[in-house]
């Protein structure tokens, strides 16, 4: 039995016209001899009647002062995919195909109890297999599973992609051939955001690592969880467009399964939203004190679940970036923050050091604390550390997961940016990418220039 | 768990069951160490800071010296180099009459985790652990699956042990005698360690 899992995202099922296009993809696969399992996301995006956000807002709107229980929230959110799945099943039925629509639990997907962000523990695909053997098209609600005691859970970000990959892995032992196709509104993984770079090309192939790093650096591609499962179980994962008839798409697979000529390449250029860069320079230059202040800040941001980017530390200074949407909260948290550092064992003043942080635009908390600390200076050293805040930044990243042992990539990046007069505020690099913090206003210019520099356009190679 | 499909004498069908574990436990799965590496800080006196940084990176590339953990400083640039490139880097900087400091015998400690962006506070946990272990972080970096910390090479094993204990992976991990076994998989294959820039 050849089994194909086809996952359709929200925009692929948000109108009858789009559902018919999706149904045509399913029917073509059946005509090509596949047994098809269809995974469906909720209909549409925010604002659509059964979109996940709409359902969440409905529940929250009952009483904004009372948070819904996570279990009930999951039950509510799962309805979006269930409705979408049944509607899609009916669409296929109306075109003459025998279908069966299943919730995640009915499809055998068992999860842990982490409501809102559940992890798939196991899948018993026996019912799906039985239905496929009976010639039915099986439709499964994405993004959800069920706990041991029957509570419906949702899988969190990338949930429907994860469902698709996981079903592919679970069905592999029953299949002579298996593949997973993720259908979306673009025709594959792009070398850059096509809204920024008209010349952006669809990659024919990409490795799991490349896709995961692209997602990490801001590209909207297949969710890394789905790629990880496909990688672990060696399932070919395709990204295709629901809306075009162009054959192909992007095949995501392990690097040893892809052509050798893609192993030494720059894969793409991504950019990550609106970012603010904060730099703290201790007047004492004391590296141990700096570590304590860093830790205090990271703890506070952790409590608020605020993600950090571009961490950098050097001598008595450290810096990091945050999403701009968090700047207000970060100012509330950090402006006026007092970090005491013990000097230890002193019998005479100063008994310790106190660092007072200033991050606010008006610095009201900072100034109030500073005044209060004036009396303490007889006993402790008081140092003020005012953050240098660089707003209106974005992070542009060159994905180069396979680019090992070749010096000069960073130089090429900075040279390219200098050529188009884009200042680089900071850089970060890892095994898989090189990122540069640039002014937000220059994001498009920087992305276009780097895309061209590394020959990623349609006119350059495959 | 596997259960084979069989057709009984009464004709009923039992489908074999394959229970597969799909998603790894979220969180930190491994601590790896890459060493030895050196950390270089170069200061520029001229007003043309961006041009000076670029010229240096170009010179390093021309001399086939791969660098990583590159950070732009208010008055210069810092980066790391693998031990085998340290001498070449030092010679180049000396030839250019650059004002630089070079710290050798350092190590990069990788905290490997799935879905890094979904894990709030991993940086706080790492810092807390390393401070507790008396390990100073010289520089940091991150990827989709790892946080990198540059530390004193002599303290790398302490850092590794402390992080393994903190993330409850010490029981299964071992400290290999051969450092090459602690490199990232791709570094082991290429023998070059970190990606060069």
Task: Summarize this entry quickly.
Helices cover 32% and strands 27% of the residues of chain A. Chain A is α/β, with parallel strands linked by helices.
Would you write up a description of this structure?
The complex is a heterodimer of chains A (462) and B (197). Chain A has 462 residues and is α/β, with parallel strands linked by helices. Chain A contains 12 helices and 21 strands. An 8-stranded mixed β-sheet of chain A has the order 3-6-2-1-9-11-12-10, sandwiched between helices. In chain A, a hairpin with a 2-residue loop joins strand 14 and strand 15. In chain A, helix 2 packs antiparallel against helix 3, helix 6 (208-216) runs antiparallel to helix 7 (224-233) and helix 11 (409-419) crosses helix 12. Chain A is globular, with a radius of gyration of 26 Å. The two termini of chain A are 33 Å apart. With 197 residues, chain B is α+β, with helices and mostly antiparallel strands. In chain B, the strands form 2 sheets. In chain B, strands 4-5-3-6-8-7 form a 6-stranded antiparallel β-sheet. Chain B has a two-stranded antiparallel ribbon with strand order 1-2. Chain B is 28% helix and 30% strand. Mean pLDDT of chain B is 76; it is low at 1-20 and 171-197. Chain B has helices spanning 49-62, 83-95, 122-132, 156-166, 185-190; strands at residues 6-7, 13-14, 28-43, 68-73, 76-82, 99-113, 139-143, 146-152. In chain B, strand 7 and strand 8 form a beta hairpin. Chains A and B meet through strand 5, helix 4, helix 5, helix 6 and helix 7 of A and helix 1, strand 4, helix 3 and strand 7 of B.
List the helices and strands and how they pair.
The complex is a heterodimer of chains A (462) and B (197).
Chain A: E1 2-8, H1 16-31, E2 35-40, H2 52-60, H3 70-93, E3 99-102, E4 109-111, E5 120-123, H4 126-133, E6 137-141, E7 144-146, E8 152-154, H5 159-171, E9 177-184, E10 205-207, H6 208-216, H7 224-233, E11 237-241, E12 250-253, E13 268-281, H8 287-303, E14 309-314, E15 317-323, H9 327-334, E16 338-342, E17 352-358, H10 364-373, E18 380-386, E19 388-399, H11 409-419, E20 426-429, E21 433-439, H12 443-453
Parallel strand pairs in A: 1-2, 1-9, 2-6, 3-6, 9-11, 10-12, 17-18
Antiparallel strand pairs in A: 4-5, 7-8, 11-12, 13-15, 13-19, 14-15, 16-17, 19-21, 20-21
Helix pairs in contact in A: 2-3, 5-7, 6-7, 11-12
Chain B: E1 6-7, E2 13-14, E3 28-43, H1 49-62, E4 68-73, E5 76-82, H2 83-95, E6 99-113, H3 122-132, E7 139-143, E8 146-152, H4 156-166, H5 185-190
Antiparallel strand pairs in B: 1-2, 3-5, 3-6, 4-5, 6-8, 7-8
Helix pairs in contact in B: 3-4
């Amino acid at each position: 039995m050849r089994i194909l899992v086809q996952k359709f995202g929200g925009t692929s099922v948000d109108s009858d016209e789009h559902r018919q296009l999706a149904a045509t993809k399913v029917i073509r696969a059946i005509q090509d001899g596949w047994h098809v399992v269809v995974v469906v996301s909720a209909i549409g995006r925010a604002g659509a009647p059964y979109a996940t956000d709409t359902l969440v807002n409905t529940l929250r709107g009952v009483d904004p002062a009372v948070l819904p229980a996570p279990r009930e929230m999951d039950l509510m959110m799962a309805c979006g995919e269930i409705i979408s799945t049944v509607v899609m099943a009916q669409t296929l039925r109306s075109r003459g195909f025998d279908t069966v629509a299943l919730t995640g639990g009915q499809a055998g997907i068992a999860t842990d109890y982490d409501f809102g962000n559940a992890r798939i523990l196991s899948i018993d695909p026996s019912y799906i297999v039985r239905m496929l053997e009976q010639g039915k098209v099986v439709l499964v609600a994405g993004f959800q599973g069920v706990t041991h005691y029957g509570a419906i859970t949702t899988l969190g970000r990338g949930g429907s992609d994860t469902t698709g990959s996981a079903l592919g892995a679970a069905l592999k032992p029953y299949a002579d051939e298996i593949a997973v196709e993720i259908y979306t509104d673009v025709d594959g993984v792009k070398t850059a955001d096509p809204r920024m770079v008209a010349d952006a090309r669809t990659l024919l192939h990409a490795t799991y690592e490349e896709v995961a790093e692209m997602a990490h650096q801001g590209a909207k591609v297949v969710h890394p969880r789905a790629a990880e499962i496909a990688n672990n179980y060696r399932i070919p994962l395709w990204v295709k467009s629901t809306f075009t008839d162009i054959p192909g798409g992007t095949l995501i697979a392990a690097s040893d399964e892809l052509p050798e000529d893609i192993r030494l390449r720059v894969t793409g250029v991504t950019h990550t939203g609106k970012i603010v860069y904060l730099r703290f320079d201790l007047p004492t230059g004391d590296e141990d004190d700096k570590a304590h202040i860093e830790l205090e800040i990271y703890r506070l941001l952790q409590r608020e679940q605020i993600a950090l980017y571009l961490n950098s530390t050097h001598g008595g200074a450290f810096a990091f970036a945050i999403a701009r949407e968090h700047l207000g909260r970060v100012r509330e948290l950090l402006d006026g923050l007092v970090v005491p550092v013990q000097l230890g064992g002193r019998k005479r003043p100063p008994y310790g050091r106190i660092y007072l942080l200033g991050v606010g635009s008006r610095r009201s908390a900072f100034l109030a604390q500073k005044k209060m600390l004036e009396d303490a200076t007889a006993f402790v050293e008081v140092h003020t550390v005012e953050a240098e805040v660089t707003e209106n930044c974005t992070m542009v990243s060159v994905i180069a997961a396979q680019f090992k042992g070749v010096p000069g990539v960073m130089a090429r990046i900075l040279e390219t940016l200098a050529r188009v007069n884009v200042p680089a505020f900071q850089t970060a690099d890892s095994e898989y990418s090189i990122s540069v913090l640039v002014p937000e206003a220059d994001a498009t210019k920087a992305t276009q220039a780097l895309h061209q520099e590394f020959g990623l356009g349609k006119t350059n190679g495959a | 768990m596997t259960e084979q499909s069989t057709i009984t004498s009464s004709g009923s069908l039992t489908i074999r069951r394959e229970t597969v574990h799909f998603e790894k436990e979220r969180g930190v799965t491994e601590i790896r160490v890459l060493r030895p590496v050196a950390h270089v800080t170069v200061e520029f006196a001229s007003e043309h800071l961006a041009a000076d940084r670029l010229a240096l990176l170009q010179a390093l590339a021309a001399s086939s010296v791969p660098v990583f953990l590159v950070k732009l400083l208010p008055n210069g640039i810092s980066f790391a180099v693998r031990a085998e490139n340290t001498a070449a880097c030092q010679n180049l900087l000396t030839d250019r009459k650059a004002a630089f400091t070079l710290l050798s015998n350092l190590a990069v400690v990788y905290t490997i985790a799935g879905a890094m962006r979904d894990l709030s506070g991993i940086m706080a946990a790492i810092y807390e652990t390393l401070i507790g272990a008396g390990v100073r972080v010289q520089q940091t970096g991150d990827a989709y699956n790892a946080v990198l910390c540059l530390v004193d090479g002599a303290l790398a094993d302490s850092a590794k042990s402390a992080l393994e204990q903190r993330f409850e992976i010490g029981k299964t991990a071992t400290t290999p005698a051969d450092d090459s076994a602690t490199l990232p998989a791709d570094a082991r294959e290429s023998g070059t360690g970190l990606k060069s820039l």
